[in-house]
Write a structure and sequence with these properties.
Elements lengths: L1 H17 L3 E8 L2 E7 L5 E4 L3 E4 L5 E6 L7 E6 L2 E6 L3 H8 L13
Antiparallel strand pairs: 1-2, 2-5, 3-4, 3-6, 6-7
């Protein structure tokens, strides 16, 4: 049983250590998308294959864009790792941007 527990801890430890991307913030607020996180130092980080940033010497990166992903999710790529992040506030931003239907009087035109 001890060997099994040690094996499980090893597997989970290796999986966590091999992840290259950690997302700290992913949200839309006041019409602006913010995605920030950490990866390896001095890496190119790509958001939805359209926008690029470079991580600093500590591995931190951030995107601040006037952009709303169609699906309210974004793919962040660094090296061989891709992380799909759900964008908080995205559905609210979509609802706020949708035009209100105009009221009708119920009378036929003419």
């Amino acid at each position: 049983m001890r060997i099994f527990c040690a094996f499980i801890l090893f597997v989970f430890g290796v999986s966590a250590a091999s992840a290259e991307i950690r997302i700290n913030v992913s949200r839309i607020e006041n019409g602006a998308l913010t995605v920030s996180g950490e990866t390896r130092p001095n890496q190119t980080v790509t958001l939805d294959g359209k926008y690029q940033a470079k991580s600093d010497a500590a591995g931190r990166f951030a995107f601040h864009l006037s952009y709303k992903p169609d699906t309210c999710m974004s793919d962040i790529k660094s090296g061989d790792d891709v992380y799909s992040a759900v964008i908080a506030g995205c559905l609210i931003a979509t609802q706020l941007a949708a035009p209100e239907p105009s009221p009708t009087s119920g009378k036929p035109p003419g």
